[in-house]
Amino acid sequence: MASSFSLPPNLAANEASPEWMNKGDNAWQLTAATLVGLQSIPGLIILYGGSVKKKWAVNSAFMVLYAFACVVFCWAVWGYRLSFGERMVPFWGKPNVALDGVYLIGKPFLGKFPNATMVYFQGVFAAITLILIAGALLGRMNFYAWMMFVPLWLTFSYTLTAFSIWSPHGFLTKMGIIDYSGGYVIHLSSGIAGFTAAYWVGPRLTQDRQRFPPNNILLMLFGAGLLWMGWTGFNGGDPYEVSVDASLAVINTHICTAVSLLTWLLLDSVFFRKPSIIGAVQGMITGLVCITPAAGVVQGWAAIIMGLCSGSIPWFTMMVVHKRSEVLQKVDDTMAVFHTHAVAGSLGGILSGIFAVPKLNGLFYGAPGHYIGLFYGLADGRTHDGFRQIGVQLIGILFVVVVNVVSTSIICVVVQVFVPLRMSEEDMEIGDEAAHGEEAYAIWGDEEERLDPKYELPKTKAPGQVEMTWS
């Protein structure tokens, strides 16, 4: 039977690497996408699994694993074309699949590599957004509700902001918003959506809210390290080419993150008299988030200032404002994604509007006169353009907040019609065993040994041997 598959018109039958494709760009883009994927699998699996109580380690890690798999499937089938396809309305693309062979080996809307590479790269960005939302819901959300929430939120929330801000046809794109790598689309969205969903799901048990120590801080640090290093692909991949802009984005990312971590650590040491590892990780995350919308369009000195701001302002909102705000206190945000992602993402977006360099914007956007930070607008006598950029950045924040509050609330209301959003009190007392019939740190053969009447604990121990404690 003859094959019905046909090659696109710009690709000859014997041409695996067409003239329009750059092999170096394609290789880097695939590598960057994989680095972003590793931030989630295994990075956030390990970070979440180590950051929660022992009884929630499996459930927290499983929420990440499920979200990644579900998003990758939904993204290829309909999510990508909703986000980057032909314009249907000013904030949404036309639904279509992205699995057709001819489409996948053709050119994307940007970049010198196949559509298949772009679908993969954007897919891991979509996946990590849902996984960040999970951070606000750890320790009580019904897993069946989470299974429904993920595809619905991807379809009716993420695709709207992605199309509006990143697609060439989006209305905020045309207004000239600066969001280099997802400060709005990913971090502000996940912070607001996570906080909103946490409101609808409800809080953890009282004893869990009052005391929720990490079950393995070293494991948590390992996950945090994967998150930090993976951000090299997160920000370095967004120019869609191997360029000086990609290199600038990478070094700015690491500079801002280091300064932010050190600033948070200093504040913890001064005000709490103890340098906190958990605080250092939070400072690391806020630095990564803050630089993301500006990574390749600001200078190194601006990255340092952004690190100082991201290590101090989210610290203040978390440690001072949160404790004094009745509204914030009512919502149980397990991993503080509102502060580390919504606040830091908004901060990064505003600072992008202040420090964005026109010539660097020209390298990234191809339109040097269309994007200018307020700092350079004042210096170059383009005050109106500088203030306009700040206005566009603020409009972007407002749009993302409204879309995510409304869409997330509607999705939660719909889901709870079919399944409870929150686990029962009895199941929350137990945790992983009740939710999945599994536990993170079970000792192999422990149950068999306890049931075996021949099994006896050793009555003596060798010199220097530590006596084992059984739980």
TrEMBL record:
<dbReference type="InterPro" id="IPR024041">
    <property type="entry name" value="NH4_transpt_AmtB-like_dom"/>
</dbReference>
<dbReference type="Pfam" id="PF00909">
    <property type="entry name" value="Ammonium_transp"/>
</dbReference>
<feature type="transmembrane region" description="Helical">
    <location>
        <begin position="246"/>
        <end position="267"/>
    </location>
</feature>
<feature type="transmembrane region" description="Helical">
    <location>
        <begin position="186"/>
        <end position="205"/>
    </location>
</feature>
<feature type="domain" description="Ammonium transporter AmtB-like">
    <location>
        <begin position="27"/>
        <end position="441"/>
    </location>
</feature>
<dbReference type="InterPro" id="IPR018212">
    <property type="entry name" value="Na/solute_symporter_CS"/>
</dbReference>
<keyword id="KW-0924">Ammonia transport</keyword>
<dbReference type="InterPro" id="IPR001905">
    <property type="entry name" value="Ammonium_transpt"/>
</dbReference>
<dbReference type="GO" id="GO:0005886">
    <property type="term" value="C:plasma membrane"/>
</dbReference>
<feature type="transmembrane region" description="Helical">
    <location>
        <begin position="301"/>
        <end position="322"/>
    </location>
</feature>
<feature type="transmembrane region" description="Helical">
    <location>
        <begin position="119"/>
        <end position="138"/>
    </location>
</feature>
<feature type="transmembrane region" description="Helical">
    <location>
        <begin position="217"/>
        <end position="234"/>
    </location>
</feature>
<dbReference type="GO" id="GO:0008519">
    <property type="term" value="F:ammonium channel activity"/>
</dbReference>
<comment type="similarity">
    <text>Belongs to the ammonia transporter channel (TC 1.A.11.2) family.</text>
</comment>
<feature type="transmembrane region" description="Helical">
    <location>
        <begin position="56"/>
        <end position="78"/>
    </location>
</feature>
<feature type="transmembrane region" description="Helical">
    <location>
        <begin position="334"/>
        <end position="356"/>
    </location>
</feature>
<feature type="transmembrane region" description="Helical">
    <location>
        <begin position="391"/>
        <end position="419"/>
    </location>
</feature>
<keyword id="KW-0812">Transmembrane</keyword>
<keyword id="KW-1133">Transmembrane helix</keyword>
<feature type="transmembrane region" description="Helical">
    <location>
        <begin position="27"/>
        <end position="49"/>
    </location>
</feature>
<keyword id="KW-0472">Membrane</keyword>
<keyword id="KW-0813">Transport</keyword>
<protein>
    <recommendedName>
        <fullName>Ammonium transporter</fullName>
    </recommendedName>
</protein>
<dbReference type="InterPro" id="IPR002229">
    <property type="entry name" value="RhesusRHD"/>
</dbReference>
<dbReference type="InterPro" id="IPR018047">
    <property type="entry name" value="Ammonium_transpt_CS"/>
</dbReference>
<feature type="transmembrane region" description="Helical">
    <location>
        <begin position="145"/>
        <end position="166"/>
    </location>
</feature>
<dbReference type="InterPro" id="IPR029020">
    <property type="entry name" value="Ammonium/urea_transptr"/>
</dbReference>
<feature type="transmembrane region" description="Helical">
    <location>
        <begin position="276"/>
        <end position="295"/>
    </location>
</feature>
